[in-house]
Every structure is written in structure tokens, then in C-alpha cells.
Amino acid sequence: GRLESAARRRLAANARERRRMQGLNTAFDRLRRVVPQWGQDKKLSKYETLQMALSYIMALTRILAEAERFGSERDWVNLHCEHFGRDHYLPFAGAKLPAETEPYGQRLFGFQPEPFQMAS
């Protein structure tokens, strides 16, 4: 009885740990899909994925900070696309821009985060 109870608890703990690791691996796979890899042929390690995510977040933060210094998204697009021919960027710059009430990051990048649930 006592040995069987300990074995059942150990099996339950192992199952919980497997679910936890599956959830963690799923989260890393989802992060790898949204983080740029710049020509990597192999899958990034967890450590490399976190490093790349940090660099990517810092770069996007700098872009947002820079963009917020301009009066509109169109001014920002014009500044960063001035080295292209007008035919290449004017269709984008003249496009209907999202409402000013939307968060700035969503207006600039059009990104809607996926809902994410933690494994229990």
C-alpha cells in the first residue's frame, strides 16, 4: 500500500513535469516563429531564441520611440523610404492608416498578438 502510493505520486509528478515541459517547448516554438532568424538553417536553441527575442524587442522599441517623435506614420514612412523611388513607397504611404485610437504599435505594425494559455 505505502509503496504503491509513493509510485502513484511519482507517476503523477512525472506526468505534471512532462506537461510543463511540453508547454514550455510549445511556447519556445511559438516564439521562434515570430523572431527573425536571418538565414539560420538550424532551429535556434532556447538560449539563442531568448537572445534573439531580446534583441528584436529592443530594436522594435527603438523603432517605436523614433516613430513617436514624428507627427504621423506617413512622416515616418517618408523619412525611412526616401532612398526608394517614389513609385515604391507612395502606395503604402498613401494607404488608409489605422485609427488614431488603436495602440501605436498596432497602428505601425498591424500586429495582433495570439491568445496564449499557460499549461496547467
Automatic annotation (TrEMBL):
GO terms for molecular function: DNA-binding transcription factor activity, RNA polymerase II-specific; E-box binding; protein dimerization activity. Its main location: nucleus. It is found in: Nucleus. InterPro entries: bHLH_dom (IPR011598), bHLH_transcription_factors (IPR050359), HLH_DNA-bd_sf (IPR036638). Residues 8-60 form the BHLH domain. The keyword Protein biosynthesis does not apply. Keywords: Developmental protein, Differentiation, Neurogenesis, Nucleus, Transcription, Transcription regulation. GO terms for biological process: axon development; positive regulation of transcription by RNA polymerase II; sensory organ development. It holds the Pfam family HLH. Transmembrane segments: none annotated. The keyword Nucleus applies. GO terms for cellular component: nucleus. PANTHER family: BASIC HELIX-LOOP-HELIX PROTEIN NEUROGENIN-RELATED, TRANSCRIPTION FACTOR ATOH7. This is Protein atonal homolog 7. The gene is ATOH7.
